[in-house]
TrEMBL record:
GO MF, any single term: NADP+ binding
HAMAP family with a match to the protein in the record: ArgC_type1 (MF_00150)
Subcellular location(s) of the protein: Cytoplasm
Source species: Igneacidithiobacillus copahuensis
EC assignment: 1.2.1.38
SMART domains, sorted: Semialdhyde_dh
Name of protein: N-acetyl-gamma-glutamyl-phosphate reductase
Keyword set includes Oxidoreductase: yes
Keywords on record: Amino-acid biosynthesis, Arginine biosynthesis, Cytoplasm, NADP, Oxidoreductase
GO BP of this protein: L-arginine biosynthetic process
Record: active site: C149
PANTHER family attached to this UniProt entry: N-ACETYL-GAMMA-GLUTAMYL-PHOSPHATE REDUCTASE, CHLOROPLASTIC-RELATED, N-ACETYL-GAMMA-GLUTAMYL-PHOSPHATE REDUCTASE, CHLOROPLASTIC-RELATED-RELATED
Length: 344
């Protein structure tokens, strides 16, 4: 049994982590923090958890956190990088759900996150926590950068094609839709029901901070410079990411060969479900579960369309963080992650 802490327990990903970790057989959640709710019972703020925990929120204190085995940061960008050096020095392993350690280049971080990186020396130590691609690196690391939600859906969708060197480098498009919980729990006018329901809006079209993250990972696996036009949209739903990915093959291949490529690439991956060729995964089929469902299309010879759906709070955040925890401790990767998606 290990003892873990969650920093940022009142946010959507923090409380989702708690939901997943409470039944985890190898984990005791010892600390869950909130600056605003310190001293309050967690199930007071989140009544769905009544009967499942007696935890109270505590203030963020380095002293409480230093005795733990693992700390999850479910905080806005900028928090983990401030606290990481001291915690790592105390022997704690960190899984950071924010973007602080996702980009390998501190200058790129400053450009997209509009703040200087306070712990650039730690960047080379961080592993990128997408186990389907970087499992071996994660296993040996003490600092895991959990990927962004859009990058998870996009990277898993493009990866088999890029690893096999089948895609033309130019012209990759990731047209993505997200539920409103992707923006976090902090109140913002554009996210209230009358503003976000019954409407679809694109945003960040000229440049979103997930673009450099997606491009860095895809370039790494392709072994070449990959550029993607990434266009996110806000959808009138709570959970879910749907990515429609477009790429051109160097030369047309049969639908069967395309399907085989993905089926074989993910055959041993418990959290990637490759649907039969030509199907249409929907976000409804992944809600609450740590799964990415993928389907392939070739509308014209050489034009590939990959559809990829995840729950942004699970495979896009908290579920992936638990998967990374399982990798770190060499436990079965699906430990504590057997949730069946919600119906309907
Ligand atoms: N929502 C999503 O779908 C995804 C989110 N992420 C990333 O995960 C992280 C958390 O996201 P999300 O849960 O949506 O965010 P929320 O805004 O819902 O929650 C943020 C949490 O962080 C705490 N917090 C805020 N500032 C500080 C601080 N300075 N020090 C300590 N705690 C702080 C808040 O609690 P309090 O103010 O009470 O301390 C709150 O519990 C973000 O970096 C986000 O980008 C990644 C993938 C998907
Ligand atoms: C719908 C929505 O607003 N989604 C967020 C992305 C989700 C997220 O939290 O990603 P990071 O961890 O990289 O910040 C956005 O577009 O900013």
């Amino acid at each position: 049994m290990i003892r873990v802490g969650i920093v940022g327990g009142t946010g959507y990903t923090g409380v989702e982590l708690l939901r997943l970790l409470l039944p985890h057989p190898e984990v005791e959640v010892a600390v869950i923090t909130s600056r605003g709710e310190a001293g309050q019972r967690v199930d007071g703020l989140f009544p769905s958890l009544r009967g499942h925990t007696d935890l109270k929120f505590s203030a963020v204190s380095g002293k409480d956190l230093q005795g733990l085995d693992v700390i999850f940061f479910a905080t806005p960008h900028g928090v983990a990088m401030e606290m990481a050096p001291e915690l790592l020095a105390a022997g704690v392993r960190l899984i950071d759900l924010s973007a602080d350690f996702r980009l390998s280049d501190a200058a790129l971080f400053a450009e997209w996150y509009h703040q200087e990186h306070s712990s650039p020396a730690l960047l080379p130590q961080a592993s990128y926590g997408l186990p389907e691609l970087f499992r071996d690196e994660i296993r040996g690391s003490r600092l895991v950068a959990n990927p962004g939600c859009y990058p998870t859906a996009v990277t898993l969708g493009f990866a088999p094609l890029l690893e096999a060197g089948l895609l033309e480098a130019g012209g990759l498009i990731a047209d993505c839709k997200s539920g409103v919980s992707g923006a976090g729990r902090t109140a913002r006018l554009g996210l209230i029901l009358p503003e976000s329901a019954d409407s679809v809006t694109a945003y960040g079209v000229s440049g979103h901070r997930h673009r450099p993250e997606i491009e860095e990972t895809l370039s790494r696996i392709a072994g070449a410079d990959i550029q993607v036009q990434f266009t996110p949209h806000l959808m009138p739903m709570i959970r879910g990411i749907h990515a429609t990915l477009y790429g051109r093959l160097h030369k047309p291949m049969s639908n069967e060969a395309l399907q085989d490529l993905f089926a074989q690439r993910y055959a041993q991956e418990p959290f990637v479900d490759v649907l039969p060729f030509g199907e249409h995964p929907s976000t409804r089929t992944v809600r609450g579960a740590n799964v990415c469902r993928i389907a392939l299309h070739q509308p014209r010879p050489g034009q590939v369309v990959v559809l990829s759906a995840i729950d942004n709070l699970v495979k896009g955040a908290a579920g992936q963080a638990v998967q990374n925890l399982n990798v770190l401790f060499a436990w079965p990767e699906n430990l504590g992650l057997a949730q069946i998606p919600l119906l309907p």
